[in-house]
Amino acid sequence: MDNRLLELTETLNLYLSPMKGPLFLFVCFVSISISLSAQKPNTSKLDKVLEKLEQRNQLMGSLAFSKQGISTYAKAFGYSDIGSNAQADTLTQYRIGSVSKMLTSTMVLQLVSEGKLQLSDSIAQFFPDWPNANTITIEHILRHESGIFNFGTSSKPITASPQSREEIIAVFEQAPVAFAPGTQVDYNNANYVVLSLIIEEIDQRSFAESLQDRILTPLSLNRTHAGGPIQTGCNEAHSYFWKNQWIKNRDNYHPSLLGAGALVSTPKELNVFLHALFTQKLLPAAQLKRMMTLKENMGMGLFAFPFYGKTAYGHSGNIDAFESFAVYFPANQVSFSLCLNGNRKEVNEVLIACLRAYFGK
User: Fold this and answer.
1) For residue 316, which of 133, 108, 100, 149 has the smallest C-alpha distance?
2) 64 pairs with which residues across the strands?
3) What b-and-e string marks burial along 146-168, b requiring 16 or more CB atoms within 10 Å of the CB?
4) Which of 23, 88, 106, 261 gets the most CB atoms within 10 Å of its CB?
5) What's the CA gap between 254 and 249, in Å, rounded?
6) What global pTM score does this model have?
């Protein structure tokens, strides 16, 4: 296998993990049918939950709720940078990992709505020399049905570092095929690296520039960007793991992740994005409906999560000890986003506690 392939394999394996706990979390409550729409936010109970976790040194990060696009709760806890005693606040920015995929899929579906791309298009027009290029469609990639080699499952050693678009394309060109397109669903971060390259090709600019023009500027998201080295002076958080105390992770940013998991944001800004997406401010109704259409519980850049008889749509993320979760309850117009830079508890338990407290369960 080519050295560049080994490096990208290890990179995606290190930074991005498929859905883990959050999918479990909501299934726990699917059989309980209680209306959430009449519930008022229980912010005092949520305060107590978060204060308890923070006092025990079990959690660092930030979360936010909004309803009908209006913030109803936002709180930060712990530090953004322990070394300088910088406390996190609601403006602190976190790496959001695979939550990035929702923004990437939104941009792809914008291209579809503009007539610049069709879901049935093959990737051969962009990458003619790739294996199965003529039979892999845009929809296959969006739904993780492409059969592109799953870089996140490899444990090969790092031996090279693809940086440029050309180097990344060459890696995919030489990758083995996992399965015939459309024959199965396999969550695979490499799909969204490919989608990022396609966005760049059609828009004829960098992924970061397309993200800025298509989503960030229209929604005035000033604390969301396409990633880069952690800038502590700009109130970006470092991530930490626990070993008798919080230990800072090294900064492992890698540009090849692009829209698969490199984005940085805040819970409040993720909620702004969620509300805009699901109220058709970013996509027409037809494209939003396609995005939310599920196959094996997987839509286009999102998942469905049952909770107390309701369904939320969104994504989770896990990148270098940062954990994130962002979902929207269409029936209630409630958005919920959580970004963690330090966590000693099972993330399912954190999400259950926060949602039950907020909804008064």
Assistant:
1) 100
2) 74, 337
3) bbbbbbbebeeeeeeebeebeeb
4) 261
5) 15
6) 0.89
Q: What is the dihedral of CA 277, 206, 298, 273, to 10 degrees?
A: -20
Residues 18 and 258: their CA atoms lie apart, in Å, by 16
- Over residues 220-263, the pLDDT tens digits come to 999 999 999 999 999 999 999 999 999 999 888 877 889 999 99
Alpha-carbon distance 147 to 176, whole Å? 9
The residue type of 228 is G
Are the C-beta atoms of 132 and 177 separated by less than 8 Å? yes
Task: Tell whether the model's pLDDT for residue 123 goes beyond 50.
Answer: yes
Amino acid found at 156: K
Q: Where would I find the beta strands (DSSP E) of the chain?
A: 59-67, 70-77, 79-81, 86-87, 94-95, 240-242, 246-248, 264-265, 303-307, 310-319, 322-329, 334-343
DSSP state of 305: E
**Is 95 in a helix, a strand, or coil?**
strand
